[in-house]
Write a structure and sequence with these properties.
This protein has 2 helices and 2 strands, in the order αββα. By secondary structure, the protein is mainly α. Strand 1 and strand 2 form a beta hairpin. The protein starts with a helix and ends with a helix.
Length: 88
């Protein structure tokens, strides 16, 4: 296996680790705040930094809100591009 291929594998592994950690923290936050009243906040640094649970109906910053089909096609395109890169 070439050095470039090893780096690619490492980056894919790191990406998967980030996705798993992201999903675990989302599950933790959702399960914690589901038992609390609405607009409940957790002070971290007094009033300077607080944790408040809000739901985002879209992707990042509510992009593609209500456009699940468009998101699906974008995800497929990214997967195909990744596959073609891996094969080249």
């Amino acid at each position: 296996m070439t050095t470039a291929r090893r780096r690619d594998v490492a980056m894919v592994g790191l990406g998967l680790l980030v996705i798993v950690l992201d999903q675990l923290t989302k599950h933790w936050i959702t399960s914690y705040f589901s038992t609390k009243p609405p607009n409940y906040s957790v002070p971290i640094l007094g009033q300077v930094l607080t944790l408040v649970y809000l739901e985002n109906p879209g992707v990042a910053f509510s992009l593609l809100e209500g456009q699940a089909v468009m998101f699906f096609f974008i995800a497929i395109a990214i997967g195909v591009i990744g596959y073609l890169y891996w094969r080249s």
